Write a sequence for this structure.
């Protein structure tokens, strides 16, 4: 299996072998972070630009650490402090970064499809760090990596994703990645947060969290973003926790050990109870650690593929 | 590629491993402070055999590790085949130890240069020694082996292929030459 894509834009377009190659490469990179000198020279002389149009700390820091552990130079651009405020378009900003001879742009943008658009217009690599409601591939990859590490496989696993499925790029990327690797996915949410036609991706739909939990090996709890969707039809926080919150009682009721994941940042007492987040089934902080290895793998693979393309020309 | 000659057969490989193991013990005056680190893939197999042999002779276990040098290569962009990154598995501190680095073939010395860089990032060994099954000459860097299974004079048009049971089903070393096939 050879990685040939100069970009990582989403998991929908990847085949099983490509996803497994990223996970396998990440597994090899994990050891680097356990060393005293947490650095390898693989991307020495490369420049990675984190271009973030939406506020993000954890994803940006994770990419920054990943790039630095590969010896790349990292520049962070936050849209609110850049020329974007002066009206520069995304493509113009991208072309300027390319003219500065950067090698990889890590893009976070509020519009679905932003990363695809930028990747088409540029020769340098683009890594999607979240675009609107579309995809957040590295988050899903680190979720899947963590699951695989904990349970030894993905094929045949049953995973529940609970939360705002309709507006979640994390949910979408997880659905593509998990189903492609042969896991069975159930999405669970209040009806209004389930996008119509989601069954066509091959997932089961449930509006009853206890029923959904009763038949899964792991649950991925999405962050409820009440600040983003302040609509009348939206359930109130307290109602949401009562109906869909992941609590110890609900987990106990299943009679099995269910792995609990969350992409962060946590809303304690809204989508997840505090004692569950801090409890023995939670792998939330391991997800954060694994995020570095996964992003190192992605940065390494896309820049390798890009260099190959240049030398082939 | 045409197979030109068989340099070592199974018995010869075994004798080389045994002799190198004895030489390592002789040079280091015993097993104390020694650790064996093989370069993936075939160097790691040989390292495992040398470690087994040494602990068999001395009746003492010897630390064994595996080094993946992909991330340290200076030709990552120019090699035609995309390398697959594997794990480095060295579960002990190499600082202050006598590290015996093991590879199958010593040729230009570039692989060993990468391995030295990789080891330097893992700690500060007291010494690093190099053991190879075959030294075929044509060095491009100031690197030499401390322990050599067999010196094989070659031309640049030839290649030396080491086959080991662990990865190739049998033990042998063959000399190949670019033919007109």
């Amino acid at each position: 299996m050879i990685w040939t894509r100069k970009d990582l834009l989403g998991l929908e377009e990847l085949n099983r072998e490509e996803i497994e190659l990223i996970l396998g490469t990440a597994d090899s990179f994990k050891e680097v972070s356990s060393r005293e000198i947490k650095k390898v020279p693989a991307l020495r002389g490369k420049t990675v630009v984190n271009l973030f149009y939406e506020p993000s700390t954890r994803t940006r820091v994770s990419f920054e650490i990943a790039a630095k552990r590969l010896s790349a130079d990292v520049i962070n651009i936050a849209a609110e402090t850049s020329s974007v405020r002066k009206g520069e378009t995304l493509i113009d900003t991208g072309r300027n970064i390319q003219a500065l001879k950067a090698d990889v742009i890590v893009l976070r943008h509020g519009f679905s499809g932003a990363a695809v658009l930028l990747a088409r217009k540029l020769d340098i690599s683009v890594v999607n760090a979240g675009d609107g409601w579309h995809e957040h591939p590295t988050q899903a990859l680190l979720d899947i990596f963590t699951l695989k590490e904990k349970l030894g496989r993905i094929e045949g696993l049953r995973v529940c994703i609970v939360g705002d499925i309709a507006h979640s790029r994390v949910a979408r990327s997880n659905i593509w990645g998990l189903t492609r690797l042969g896991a069975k996915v159930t999405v669970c949410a209040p009806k209004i947060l389930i996008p119509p036609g989601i069954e066509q991706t091959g997932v089961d739909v449930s509006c009853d969290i206890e029923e959904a939990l009763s038949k899964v090996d792991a649950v991925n709890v999405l962050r409820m973003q009440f600040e983003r969707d302040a609509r009348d039809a939206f359930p109130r926080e307290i109602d949401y926790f009562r109906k869909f919150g992941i609590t110890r009682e609900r987990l106990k009721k299943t009679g099995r050990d269910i792995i609990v994941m969350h992409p962060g940042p946590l809303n304690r007492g809204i989508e997840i109870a505090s004692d569950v987040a801090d409890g023995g089934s939670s792998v939330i902080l391991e997800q954060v650690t694994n995020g570095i290895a996964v992003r190192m793998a992605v940065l390494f693979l896309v820049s390798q593929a890009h260099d190959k393309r240049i030398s082939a020309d | 590629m045409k197979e030109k000659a068989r340099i070592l057969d199974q018995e010869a490989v075994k004798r080389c491993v045994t002799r190198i193991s004895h030489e390592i013990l002789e040079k280091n005056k015993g097993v104390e402070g020694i650790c064996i680190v093989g370069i993936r893939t075939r160097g790691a197999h040989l390292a495992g055999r040398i470690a087994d042999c040494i602990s068999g002779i001395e009746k003492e276990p010897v630390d064994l590790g595996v080094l993946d040098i992909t991330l340290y290569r200076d030709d990552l962009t120019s090699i035609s085949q995309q390398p697959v990154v594997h794990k480095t598995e060295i579960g002990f501190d190499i600082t202050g130890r006598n590290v015996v680095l093991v590879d199958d073939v010593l040729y230009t010395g570039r692989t060993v240069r990468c391995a030295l860089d990789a080891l330097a990032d893992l700690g500060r060994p007291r010494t690093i020694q190099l053991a190879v099954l075959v030294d075929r000459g044509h060095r491009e860097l100031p690197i030499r082996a401390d322990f050599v299974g067999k010196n094989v004079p070659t031309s640049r048009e030839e290649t030396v292929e080491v086959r080991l049971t662990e990865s190739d089903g049998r033990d042998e070393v063959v000399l190949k030459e670019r033919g007109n096939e």
